[in-house]
What we know:
The complex is a heterodimer.
Chain A: E1 10-11, E2 16-19, E3 31-34, H1 37-42, H2 45-54, E4 60-71, E5 78-85, E6 90-91, E7 103-112, H3 113-116, H4 120-130, H5 145-154, H6 156-161, H7 189-195, E8 208-214, H8 222-227, E9 235-242, H9 245-265, E10 278-279, H10 283-318, E11 329-334, E12 336-343, E13 346-353, E14 356-357, H11 368-371, E15 376-379, E16 387-392, H12 394-399, E17 403-404, H13 414-420, H14 423-432, E18 436-439, H15 442-447, H16 456-466, E19 469-482
Chain B: E1 4-8, E2 16-22, H1 25-40, E3 50-58, H2 61-78, E4 81-92, E5 99-109, E6 123-134, E7 137-145
Helix pairs in contact in B: 1-2
Amino acid sequence: xxxxxxxxVERISDEVWEIPTTEKPGMLVPARLYATERxxxxxxxxxxxxxxxxxxxxxxxxxxxxxxxxxxGYGFPIGGVAAFDAQEGVISPGGVGYDINCxxxxxxxxxxxxxxxxxxxxxxxxxxxxxxxxxxxxxxVRLTRAEFRDVMRQGAGWCIARGYGWHQDLERIExxxxxxxxxPDQITDHAIERGIHQLGTLGSGNHYLEIQVVSxxxxxxxxxAAAFGITGQDQxxxxxxxxxxxxxxQVASDYLKVFEKAMRRYNITVKDQQLACAPFRSPEGQDYxxxxxxxxxxxxxxxxxxxxxxxxxxxxxxxxxxEELGMEIVYDVAHNIAKxxxxxxxxxxxxxxxxxxxxxxxxxxxxxxxxxxxxPVICGGSMETGSYLLVGTEQAMQETFGSTMHGSGRTMxxxxxxxxxxxxxxxxxxxxxxxxxxxxxxxxxxxxxxxAYKNISDVVExxxxxxxxxxxxxxxxxxxxxx
Amino acid sequence: xxxxxxxxxxxxxxxxxxxxxxxxxxxVFQASGQAVIDALANPRTVQxxxxxxxxxxxxxxxxxxxxxxxxxxxxxxxxSVVYHxxxxxxxxxxxxxxxxxRSTITGAPIDSTTQELRADIKGVTKHLFDLRHDQTGWTTTxxxxx
Lengths: 483, 146
């Protein structure tokens, strides 16, 4: 097998591979990768180097894990999962990612493709008008500093209380849209100034709002799909991918500096500066956790305000209320986060960076409506190829700290993608294939071309066969808004 | 002679990386600032109705460069501006008291109807971050998180 590493990688099963602790000095636990042989061979060298670096961090338990959409990241690989003992282990901003609580939200509708297709262009235009995207965009919600601090504490609940959503939305958001322990006093003025105008904005890069279709042959598990409000029959759904914008990034940057100093104090050495960390129970670790929760709550609020705008846009274009259109949230999941969760080893600080929580049936953390099925897991693909709705499993609880994949992962640089296609050309070609795209930046659009990404279906098949999530439905894009 | 920059491929697939060069520290700073400006928007489409002077000090030139490039990202979000031009003068403080930068940045409020907007930089990263000096002058490598 031709891998981009010289380290020994042992086959545990067709979808699970292990790098033993003998492969790098300082590894405290083995590294495990979820991948088919083909995906493993396509993984860049950074994945192997970075995952084994993570396996050296103090207090790590069981394995350093990487999902099949894994690729090189800053410090931790994207697709990485790591669990640290809540008493003896560390917390690391690099294990969360710069875009704290970057995540996915899926909204169902009663509409069919046949009803939407004739109005698709005005719908995309209205969504583009109502949901700001692109460089430095500002949202319509004007916040005072005091109100922004309330957003940090209350997350999506703050939005619901002000009419930006429905009360029942909250149980359809991971952690009911609000992580406990957020403390705005741990946020710098710099971060506040960057974030205060950004509520309800998409951003740019790989963030998007997408109109999708679920066809009958795209439903793999009818019973679970029905429990999630997915009927198939060319049903229209809306997917949102965005996070905490510049606010979360500033929080991460601020605490990387704090942790660089803290590591000297606690005599911690790391293999990569961007793995900077501090003991979870130290003052620095607790301050970061409180600040990270603020950023995570602002991301839940961000996606909530965007949901409100999406409902307004649909109501305006179709002349019916969002309630009449059945625009319930299916679920909202974080894929850049650190959370305290309980497993066989005790209380652990689970870092998921480009990885989604995938809790199986029966977990008390899930709302009653999903406790029998397991939680919905939303995985975004490229704007040309489609996305997937999956469901969490008990096997994920046993093997991966209740975690799974999050998307498809890039295989081509942004520069190379722009050289291969112009944004205007891509927009025309996608329109010919029935996908209407509106973008603030045409060069940014070219960077997100489908050919720049891995085939998400291969990644999804891997986690399905591995059993750490199961396929529920495939979601095919027909309209997309990008920054 | 002015500094130059070029985009690096295959350094950060999902993000953007550049290398900037200059004979002097001021030149390499200016070229680096130009790279950030170009990444955000086509500067030829941005007016000069917004102006900001930045004075910064740091114990070493690398920290000074990192912090100053982060300032450009900060103003973009905090003041909703993109940039037309940037100037930078860098020098060592007397008595080995560190390094100082004086910079003027011009630009305008973001307006997608008149400006060619590009990528929204979320931050400057420390991944592979390097500022080095050799016989030909100064070179830096910077990875931007998009």
